[in-house]
């Protein structure tokens, strides 16, 4: 188990390093922050002073080493826009993002998994076809299109809900539904496929042949085995809690991390973008590690790797 955790942690640290490196290189090669942050008619002396103040005149490798050293000290940099610590700006937006993504996650799990299980247990029935039709529709419609349709119907036409902002809980209804529907559709499809595969396994036929009631065989054998691929999808959704609402936050003018990321990228606010990417990568890596541990709890065969195989 210790070797298993050690390998997973090493892989997690390598992933974080690659994410930071990718963000560092791409952002610095995509444009000059000094020309974007300062006005177009700023004197060359002011632009040169800005570059010197933020170390943009230094060689790229030197900026990279300095940034990595700062991360190890717990310093994620300062915003070039207002000079505040990047982690402070991001931390202010996290509660707003979680206010959308956590309820949406509950909708995804509470609606998608039961729908997928029900469709698999009633294969080729009208209910199965209806669930899959809705799942395909929810999966293929882009979130910004669904969000705009909901705004048109419930905010503009009916006037029941606000179209954007964060003034009250009512402002969160449409973005939460927008986020929840797409994820529920994905979970319903994966859960149905996993259940159908498990229901056709020999151990299910053996259990039924021994006289085990159908509902008991489903509860004891089918659901735990079908949960393994489903847990992978849920883990990805948990890992994307901070960055999974970029488009929806923009559509509904919701002041969360996703909208901050869009603004920071447009302004080449390097420290803010890198801070967000690092936090998102850390969340994803942590979620994947938890999923790996859950695999062993759901299937004891996965706890011990065969001889000669890597963990």
Automatic annotation (TrEMBL):
Domain of life of the native organism = Bacteria
Query: Which SUPFAM superfamilies has this protein been placed in?
Result: MetI-like
Q: Spell out the subcellular localization from the entry.
A: Cell membrane
Q: Which InterPro entries match?
A: BPD_transp_1_N, MetI-like, MetI-like_sf
Pfam families listed in its UniProt record: BPD_transp_1, BPD_transp_1_N
Q: Which family is it part of?
A: Belongs to the binding-protein-dependent transport system permease family.
| Name by which UniProt lists this protein | Peptide/nickel transport system permease protein
Q: Which organism is it from?
A: Muricoccus roseus
């Amino acid at each position: 188990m210790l070797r298993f955790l050690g390998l997973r942690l090493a892989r997690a640290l390598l992933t974080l390093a690659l994410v930071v490196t990718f963000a560092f290189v791409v952002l610095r090669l995509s444009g000059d922050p000094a020309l974007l942050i300062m006005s177009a008619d700023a004197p060359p002396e002011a632009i040169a002073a800005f570059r010197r103040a933020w170390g943009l005149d230094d060689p790229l490798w030197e900026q990279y080493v300095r940034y990595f050293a700062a991360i190890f000290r717990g310093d994620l940099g300062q915003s070039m826009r207002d000079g505040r610590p990047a982690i402070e700006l991001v931390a202010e937006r996290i509660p707003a993002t979680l206010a959308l993504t956590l309820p949406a996650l509950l909708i995804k799990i509470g609606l998608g998994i039961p729908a997928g299980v029900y469709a698999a247990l009633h294969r080729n029935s009208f209910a199965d076809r209806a669930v899959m039709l809705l799942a395909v529709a929810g999966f293929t419609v882009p979130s910004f299109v669904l969000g705009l349709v909901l705004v048109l119907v419930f905010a503009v036409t009916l006037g029941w809900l606000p179209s954007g902002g964060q003034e009250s809980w009512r402002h969160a209804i449409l973005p939460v539904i927008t986020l929840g529907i797409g994820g529920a559709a994905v979970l319903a499809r994966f859960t149905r496929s996993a259940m159908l595969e498990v229901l056709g396994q020999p151990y299910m036929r053996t259990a039924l042949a021994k006289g085990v009631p159908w509902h008991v065989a489903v509860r004891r054998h089918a659901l735990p085995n079908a949960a393994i691929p489903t847990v992978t999808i849920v883990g990805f959704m948990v890992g994307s809690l901070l960055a999974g609402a970029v488009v929806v936050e923009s559509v509904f003018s919701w002041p969360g991390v996703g909208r901050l990321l869009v603004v920071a990228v447009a302004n080449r606010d390097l420290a803010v973008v890198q801070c967000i990417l690092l936090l998102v990568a850390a969340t994803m890596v942590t979620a994947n590690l938890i999923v790996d541990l859950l695999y062993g709890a759901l299937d004891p065969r996965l706890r011990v790797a065969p001889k000669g195989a890597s963990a």
